[in-house]
Amino acid sequence: MVSRMVRLVAEVDRSRCDLLRARLRAANTAASPRLRALRDTPHEREVPLQLWMLDASDAFHGGLVGYTWGGWLHVTYLWVDEHRRGGGLGAALLAEAERIARAERGCRAVRLETWDFQAPDFYRKQGYDVVCVIPDYPPGITEYTLTKRLG
Predict the structure, then answer these.
(1) Which residues contact 46 (CB under 8 A, 6 or more apart)?
(2) Pairing state of beta strands 60-69 and 72-80?
(3) Angle at 149 between CA 138 and CA 90, to 5 degrees
(4) Distance between CA atoms of 48 and 73, rounded to whole angstroms?
(5) What would the pLDDT profile of 24-73 be if each residue is shown by its tens digit?
(6) Which end of the chain offers a freer environment for a tag, N or C, measured as fewer CB atoms within 10 Å?
(7) What is the CA 113 to chain-centroid distance, rounded?
């Protein structure tokens, strides 16, 4: 039950979102020695990692978008034009992102999400392990979370 002294408001509010994030970060830092140890290190900040597949005329044929944080690479998007699929370009994008994350940013692992009709088998072939399966997210689709340790 919500107190009569407060009210619930459903609206998008950037400043409140920033305030909530800051307060949650402070509470998490206070509660977790591991997060406290992460503060003021290179792994504290989310750092974008983006790779683009372009031809000689700079036409776009695919790419990878993600970020590194906490010693992990998070792959948000990976896409290759359907006419270029099957030739190892997706694997090359992923391998280069992993190399940058490991060699240049000190990451030890990668995580990503994919749906059942997208690429779970592709990621398994690249050495990823399924760590979470969420059926019916959204209805009729299964989402997979996969991870990989970087050597």
Answers:
(1) 67, 68, 69
(2) antiparallel
(3) 60
(4) 10
(5) 999 999 999 999 888 888 888 899 999 999 999 999 999 999 999 999 99
(6) N
(7) 8
